[in-house]
Structure formats: C-alpha cells, structure tokens
Amino acid sequence: xxxxxxxHEVVVIGGGPAGATAARQLARQGVDVLVxxxxxxxxxxxxESFLPRTSKQxxxxxxxxxxxxxxxxxxxxxxxxxxxxxxxxKDFWFRDAFGGAKQPTFNIERAPFDRMLLRAAxxxxxxxxxxxxxxxINRLEDGDVEVEVDGESLRAKYLIDASGQATxxxxxxxxxxxxxxxxxxxxxxxYRGVQRRDGEEAGSxxxxxxxxxxFWIIPIDRERTSIGLVMSQEDARAAGRPAGEMLRWGxxxxxxxxxxxxxxxxxxxxxxxxxxxxxxxxxxxxxxFLVGDAATFxxxxxxxxxxxxxMAAEHAAxxxxxxxxxxxxxxxxxxxxxxxxxxxxxxxxxxxxGFYKHSFRxxxxxxQGPFSVHGALIALLAGDVFPRPALALQxxxxxxxxxxxxxERFPFVPRRxxxxxxxxx
Length: 425
Description:
Layout: E1 10-13, H1 17-28, E2 33-37, H2 52-60, H3 64-67, E3 72-75, E4 77-82, E5 90-93, E6 105-108, H4 110-123, E7 127-130, E8 134-141, E9 144-149, E10 152-156, E11 158-161, H5 168-173, E12 176-192, E13 206-210, E14 213-219, E15 224-232, H6 233-239, H7 246-253, H8 255-260, E16 265-280, E17 284-285, E18 288-290, E19 296-297, H9 305-324, H10 330-355, H11 358-364, H12 373-381, H13 391-409
Parallel strand pairs: 1-2, 1-11, 2-7, 4-13, 11-18
Antiparallel strand pairs: 3-6, 4-5, 8-9, 9-10, 12-15, 12-16, 13-14, 14-15, 16-19, 17-18
C-alpha cells in the first residue's frame, strides 16, 4: 500500500530573507519546495542595517552580483554616542575586530533586498506563492505535514517556518515565550536631510543612548535615513504622548538627535513595532524547523536579525535535505539544529541585556581594554557566532562582562552622565 501523496516535499512559510534563503538552498539541491508568503513583494520592512557575516554569506551563496544591482550604503562600523552630546562619539570599526579584519557590510532598503532574495529562490526552482496566508496547521509529523492556505489544504513532508514575528508554528504549538526583561517598543520613520558624517563614515549607523533606551540612525541611501526610538513600555507610557508623536517627542528632547535632525523632513514611511524579545523553543520538532524571527527575536540594537535568520535558514535547509534523502536520524538532526540556534543566539541575548545597563555603556565607551576585549565585542557584533562563538571570543566577552560588574562597585573608567529623555528640559 502506497503512502499518502504530498503536494510538495517542503513548505516554507514566509518569503523574507530567512524563508527565501531556505527555499533557494533546498531548490538548488533538487528539493520540491513551495514558499507561502502572505504579502506581495516589494513590501516594507524595518531593519535596514546588516552585519559583515551577512555580506560574506551572500558572496558564498553567489548573490553578490545581485546585491550590487540595488542601491545601498557601505557600512564600515558603528558609532555610539550618549544622548546628551557632552562627549565625543566612539566609533567601532569592523576592521578592528578580534581575529582579523572583517569585510565591510551595508545598509539597504529592505523592500528591494527582500524581493531580490525571493526572486533568487524562484530562479533556483522554488515555487513561490505570494498573497497566500497559512490559516491553520493540521498536522506536524516527520514526513507528513498539512497546512490550510486560504481554504486549500497543502501537504508536504517537512515544514520550515520563516513567518517572522507571526511565529505561525510557535503559536500553534504554544511555544512562544516573551522575555519579560526585554519588553520594548520601537517608533520609527524615514527622513530626508538628516545630518551625516563625511567620507567613509557617512554610512556608519549611529546608536544614541539614553536611560530609557536608544535611538538608531541608519543611512539607507544617498538621501534617506531610517530613524527609530526603542524604549520600554513603562517609559513609553510615562512619556504621556500619543504613539504617533513619540518619535518626534524623543528627537526634540535629545540634544544629539535634535542637532542631527534639525534640517530633516519626514517621508511617507513611519510606524510602530512591538519590539518584544522572545524564544519559541524547541526550534525544531517532528516535521518542522523554525528559522529567523519565527524561532527567536533578539533586540535589534546590534542589527543581528537578518544575519541570524539567513544563517539558520541555510542550516535548516541542510538538515532538511539530509532528512528527505534518508541520510540522517530525525531526532539527532533536530538536536544539532537546536544547538546551532542556541549557541549563536545565547551570547547575543547576554550582550543585549548588558547594553541596557549604564555601567555596560560606560565600559563600552572606553573603547579599549586588555586582551582585546573590545575587539571581541566588535567581532561579536560583526556576526562571528556561527556555528558557535570561538572559545577565544567567548572568554574575552566574559572578561568584558566581568569588567562591567567590577566597574559597578569599583569604578575604573570615567563615569558618564546617564541622560534621560523623561527628565530632559
């Protein structure tokens, strides 16, 4: 008796960078893969800053030439500055990362970038259906998956969930767990005329730090700049402003932001994002793999989202091919994938939590230290976490964290004013 017929070997939910990468890798291995995306490309997404590890991955995937067809801003590092503007900013260049020079990367508008990746998946043989929403998951088993899409039932052998913060599988299985200490909200908009730096520094994003959170300033192209304010829900409520006014309120109260935005004008892009950090464990189970934001969302302060998503997608595709071709044990393969996601994200969560402490920022802004500890942080922010951070990197980051704890009790770097938006005149 023959087994049940499957419409496709693999269904991928979501056509963003993670979903498109997984689908392309599967299709290149001869897998019959279907991508279901509820949106129609091009569509707007926030998150325009990328890591050097993503640039390296795009080259390895043979997509470097396609990237060159889209306008972008070269990104050589990141600038950090306190919101009061009372001391000079500090630049962290990727070339100074521990372990050798890291290649530059880029800032880019997400709509054309995401469309490029999805088209590349289709050109490689993946079937892409846009405007197709997954309404229900009926079955999740190894070798037998069934989903409902706008009244139609589709079956496959495996499912890769790249649905982003919709976390389709995570919600279906009750896996999504919000991290209560990282409940944030982001207010963002695109502007023209934002003050920029000169020369090679023009494309470097800026992180402007304040007690309640932080601003991002990300040059997208020659004219437009993405600006956002991330803060806790409690502080946002304390500001007492309507959500649509929060970004303007923050810019007006922050000396650094006020100066850099004095001649700017808004475009038609603006929005609010519930910037909650969460995990959906386990990241793999019978019949499924979770990639990108469908697996875990790390606070965006270090721009790790697309990098984590695309790297996990590539690994999930590799695991799925092994399962389909009956070369791997399902449980062992899932454990390997779960370790991959855990090892690459855990240290990032620790650093993000540290960033919201003023003592962490004070040591960070010293921009130097023994044993290349700052170089280790730069390497981490460049994306050197796959398949897991090297031991030499791990202990240096741990040492930096020790310095932060020591500094809290016995200050050994200059104290800096902890600028507050809520208390600003």
